[in-house]
Specification:
The protein has 5 helices and 5 strands. The protein is an alpha/beta fold and 159 residues long. It has a single domain, classed as Alpha/beta knot (3-Layer(aba) Sandwich), CATH 3.40.1280.10. It has a 5-stranded parallel β-sheet with strand order 2-1-4-3-5. Helix 1 packs parallel to helix 5.
Length: 159
Amino acid sequence: MNISIVTVGKLKEKYLKAGIAEYAKRLGAYAKITEIEVADEKAPEQLSEADMEIVKKKEGERILAKIPQDAYVIALAIDGKMKTSEQLAKDMESLMTYGRSKVVFVIGGSLGLHDEVLKRADEKLSFSKMTFPHQLMKLILLEQVYRAFRIMKGEPYHK
């Protein structure tokens, strides 16, 4: 399986980079992992609704340019479906069974994802009703994808 993670913005925090590198390395035994960072749109702290829409649209265009036509797209969104780790594993196994070998996870910037990206997504996934920094979500996502592969293979993993 080829798994890509498209994120907005450059990751700067060393502790997050270390965790992400660790899980990407572990996942290498199960799938090919590609991390794609697209530039975030520079914007002032205080934005009008119209300005927010412009920022999300520009970031969305960059995201969409990185998604292959034949990819199954999972957008991380606060209003997405919440799943257990076991359900994520079952769903990913189902994708592999039915020939969907390219999976792209999308993590938006601080303002979220543009509607065009959400329309392109085959599903929306939520990890919580809480808001998390998008850089931290990349680490959480990689850990959960790793956990899903361990579950699929029947390998032990702490609960």
